[in-house]
Specification:
This protein has 2 helices and 6 strands; from the N terminus they run βαββαβββ.
């Protein structure tokens, strides 16, 4: 089963493909998406990576959390479900 990871602290110029390639060092990646601001169409500096299996997701957390990625320290943890909006 795939596990979704939250990735914060991304450089604003990072692309989905670069994010996916970086996380493939931990194992197969099902998807990698950087969240974009709807008004400016610029990165918000965070995104989500869906790993193919749980063991690789846990490995990615230990490999990348707090580590440098293109000059910025990443925050990587298991994504929480989105809270309902009012």
């Amino acid at each position: 089963m795939a596990k979704k990871l939250y990735v914060g602290g991304l450089p604003y110029k990072t692309t989905n493909d670069e994010l996916k390639a970086h996380f493939e060092a931990a194992g197969p990646v099902a998807s990698a998406t950087i969240i974009m601001d709807k008004m400016t169409n610029r990165s918000k500096g965070f995104g989500f990576v869906e790993m193919v299996n749980d063991a690789d997701a846990d490995s990615a957390i230990s490999m990348f959390n707090g580590k440098d990625f293109d000059g910025r320290n990443l925050t990587v943890n298991e994504a929480r479900p989105m809270a309902p909006r009012a």
